[in-house]
Amino acid sequence: MPCKTVDSIKQVALAVTSPLNLDAARIDMFLTDDGIKVCDVNSIGSFLPTDQVHNIKVGELITDLLIRKKQEG
After folding, report:
1. Which of 3, 22, 25, 49 has the fewest CB atoms within 10 Å, measured from its CB?
2. How confident is the model at residue 47 (pLDDT cuts 50, 70, 90)?
3. Strand boundaries in 1-73, DSSP class E
């Protein structure tokens, strides 16, 4: 994906998680000719496909985020 698209996806993700006060979420999105469409926001979604397909250990990322937030007070 072009960097512009990745940045747009990040902006949409922040826009939908901030009002819900979520630090982490699984967001289902569609890229359409009209822009990015949010289908679903899961506060505790299954991260298994992300772990398997992209080799990203989401659980570790969330744990690191929570520890960092706790340390920052």
Report:
1. 3
2. low
3. 26-32, 35-42
